[in-house]
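Just curious. Protein, please.
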Amino acid sequence: MLPNILFSLIVSLPIVGLLSICRSFVCGYRSYQASKTAFVILSVAYILIMLIVLAFDLVVLFGYGVAHTGKSSTNDLIVLSVTVIPTYVVTAGLWLLCRYMERRLA
C-alpha cells in the first residue's frame, strides 16, 4: 500500500512543478504586457526556483533509486518528507505569489 502511494506522489512531482512553471510564465507574460519590469523579473525568478526544487528532487530520487541498502517503510517516509512536501509547499507559495502579482496588475 505505501509503495503505491509513494509512487503516485513521486510521479505527481513533475506535473505539479510544470503547473507552477506555467503559472509563473503566464504571470510573467501578463506583467510584460502591463510593462511591470519588476514583476517580470520576479516571475523568471519563480521559474528558476521551481526548476531548482525539481532538480533537487531528481537528485534525491536518483540517489534513493540506486542505493544498495535495504529499502524500508522508514526510508520511504524520509524520501517522501524530503521531496514531496517541500515541492508542494514551494508550488503553493509560488502560485499564491503569482496570484498576488496579477491582482496588483489590475
